[in-house]
Amino acid sequence: MDFHLTEEQRAVQEMVHDFAEKEIVPHATEIDKTDEFPAEIFRKMGEQGLMGLPFPEEYGGGGADAMSQALAVEEISWASGSVGLTYAAHLSLGCAPIYNFGTEDQKKEWLTPLARGEALGALALTEPKGGSDLAGSVSTTAVLKGNEWIINGSKMYVTSGAIARSINVLCMTDKTKGHRGLSLIIVPRGAPGLVVGKLEEKMGLHGSLTTQVFFEDCRVPKGNLLGAEGDGFKQAMITLDGGRIGIGAMALGLGRAALEASLKYAQERQAFGQPISNFEAIQWMIADSAMELEASRLLIAKAAYLKDRHQRFSTEAAMAKLNASEAADRACSKAIQIHGGAGYLRDFPVERYYRDNRLTLIGEGTNEILRMVIARSILKEVG
Ligand SMILES: Cc1cc2nc3c(=O)[nH]c(=O)nc-3n(C[C@H](O)[C@H](O)[C@H](O)COP(=O)(O)OP(=O)(O)OC[C@H]3O[C@@H](n4cnc5c(N)ncnc54)[C@H](O)[C@@H]3O)c2cc1C
Asked: Do residue 82 and residue 140 come from a single domain?
């Protein structure tokens, strides 16, 4: 067992950290205040080779491993949760399904521009009827007519759905087969009948665009089906497994930012004639956050390690996301407490970290659903 990063992984970590510190941190408060999508930052991330980091070079990617991807998402999220979520979703939800399930032609046409950073990708699974019960809640239909899929229905909460070049949409292509009748179809921006709804107003992650999308007799070429008809549910589950490492890494980045801000503040702020870092109550909060975030780091690393070796990692990814999101939630809350009244003000970043991280307990499988996933897999092992 080796707890050290490889040379390549460390190089990615350092490069992304330097980029995030220089290009994202100075804008993070402004992004949160204005709700504006930071297009210029993503343009620079493309130039830096970050937008296709884990995909092969032949498709415009960087050829990095899953561990490097997690490190990159952590560093970007450390600087801004909004940029972090958009980035994590682009890689895991927008690009990965095309890479994992697409044909050679589909990869060239749809993955390459995304990996080169020319545009963002998105995934639309969740519907108004509910996101947790994916198998039972998809009522968006796709019917093959001649050489086209005719799609009708709507999806909710689509990250980057308003600007994505392509959205991988989970559709019911055969109602008689239940969840085995679900299929993933690439819907390009500008497809006739694709209507983008209003931008959602969120608690945090203000620079990440979240929208409803509507399909009104939306026409898409037959060749945009990803993999085989009826494989959509399985593909969605595989995609979410990978995505959960990303959401865990996002939480870790935000939690780490909160801890770092706490360390700085605790050593500067004086009370009763001494820095508050001298008080045991403050030290215990710092110790708990540091320990819990370190445990999250190890779980994320283990899930990424298994993924890189093409071994099963569903349970580990669920554990990594669940643990990191809740550890970061506590670390952000403690950071606000350590800052006292200042922690509640927008002048300090810790309340933003707290708001931004809150999503990680909900997205890509709520933590209640993940507890079910973990328990079922353990019960199966012992049963
Ligand atoms: C900012 C943001 C970005 C998002 N991005 C995307 C995206 O890009 N693509 C996409 O497809 N979706 C996206 N989502 C949707 C997200 O994945 C869903 O919100 C999430 O899966 C939960 O679904 P739901 O909101 O319908 O909640 P529900 O499924 O209605 O759940 C409500 C509550 O009931 C609980 N619950 C449900 N079933 C059970 C059960 N069996 N046992 C115990 N508890 C249960 C849940 O844990 C939760 O607490 C995003 C959401 C947000 C807020």
From this structure: no
Question: Residue 364 catalytic?
Answer: yes
Q: Which atom of ligand 1 is nearest to the CA of 126?
A: 11
Alpha-carbon gap, residue 193 to 182, rounded angstroms: 20
**Which neighbouring-strand residues pair with 151?**
142, 218
Q: Does residue 125's CB lie within 6 angstroms of at least one atom of ligand 1? A: yes
* Region 65-92 average pLDDT: 98
Q: How far is the CA of 361 from the centre of ligand 1 (A)?
A: 10
| pLDDT 10s digits, 293-312 | 999 999 999 999 999 999 99
Q: Does any ligand 1 atom lie closer than 6 A to the CB of residue 131? A: yes
- CA 370 to CA 373: how far, in whole Å? 5
> 256 and 358 share a domain?
yes
pLDDT over 80 (residue 313): yes
Same domain, 139 and 163: yes
What is residue 136's predicted lDDT score, i.e. its pLDDT? 87
Asked whether residue 225 falls in the same domain as residue 314, the answer is no
Instruction: Give the number of C-alpha atoms closer than 13 A to the C-alpha of residue 240, restricted to the C-beta side.
Output: 24
Residue located nearest, by CA, to atom 22 of ligand 1:
131
- The residue whose CA has the least distance to atom 37 of ligand 1 is 132
Kindly state if the Cβ of 124 falls inside 6 Å of ligand 1: yes
Gap from CA of 192 to ligand 1 centroid (Å): 28
pLDDT digits (tens, 9 = 90+) for 179-216: 999 999 999 999 999 999 999 999 999 999 999 999 99
Query: Is pLDDT at 135 greater than 90 in this prediction?
Result: no
Number of domains the chain contains: 3
Which has more confidence, 103 or 381? 103
Q: What is the pTM of this model?
A: 0.98
> Where does a domain end: 195, 213, 231?
231
Give CA–CA dist 38/23, Å, rounded. Answer: 11
Q: How far apart are CA 66 and CA 115, in angstroms?
A: 15
Distance CA 295, CA 324 (A): 8
Domain interval for residue 265:
233-382
Tell how far the Cα of 216 is from the centroid of ligand 1, in angstroms.
24
Instruction: Say yes or no: CB of residue 250 within 6 Å of ligand 1.
Output: no
Of 127, 292, 316, 364, catalytic: 364
Question: Are 157 and 270 in the same domain?
Answer: no
In a domain, 2, yes or no: no
Q: Tell me what pLDDT residue 130 has.
A: 85
Q: Same domain, yes or no, for 246 and 263?
A: yes
